[in-house]
Amino acid sequence: MKKNLLAVAVLCAMTSGAAFAQQAESPWLVRVRALHLDSANKDSTGLGLSVNNKTIPEVDITYFFNKNVAAELVLTVPQKHDVRAGSNNIGSLKHLPPSLLLQYHFDAPGFKPYVGAGVNYTRFSSVRFDPAVAAALNPSIDKNSFGAALQIGVDIPLTKNLSLNFDVKKVYIKTDVFSGGTKVGTFKVDPVLAGVGLGWRF
């Protein structure tokens, strides 16, 4: 009888300890990534519009509701792009594209893969056109874009709190293009963002 009670007590202690350790793990994860932005450049205006690809910094903040489900807020600073019509540089713009994604993190030994889906909001600013283009076409664009964001990635633990991260996102960004106030088509940036970085679980 005493042996049974002792076994139950040890089991309860071990279970309580594991539960406490799980509860003690912070739900917050912060990552810093370097991303390569590869634009799809889909243009229906007939002008052959495109923006340049570039490498940009990114910070994301992730909150875990439990060990598998999390929400990630993806942030960066406004990014400047050259705007081209065919091979001609016709101006520049900046865009700020934060995204909010809901993620599912899979249980796997040695690494932690995840998938995510959510929404992106992009704000275009500092839109400038070559004076000759501005005089001839009086161009303008819609400054706001809402679209879907899809994600797949993996965290590879390096220490208890530090992890190496690989991440790929497809983000749907578009803007309507106007000439003299008349819509002439839609330009879709729709970039693929491939990133690598480090994450810290607090």
TrEMBL record:
A biological-process GO annotation: transmembrane transport
InterPro entries the UniProt entry points to: OMP/PagP_B-barrel (IPR011250), OMPW (IPR005618)
Superkingdom as given in the UniProt entry: Bacteria
UniProt-annotated location(s): Cell outer membrane
Keywords: Signal
This protein's record includes keyword Iron: no
Keyword Signal annotated: yes
Signal peptide start-end: 1-21
Any one GO CC term of the record: cell outer membrane
PANTHER family: OUTER MEMBRANE PROTEIN W, PTHR36920
Name this protein carries in UniProt: OmpW family protein
Organism (species): Acidovorax carolinensis
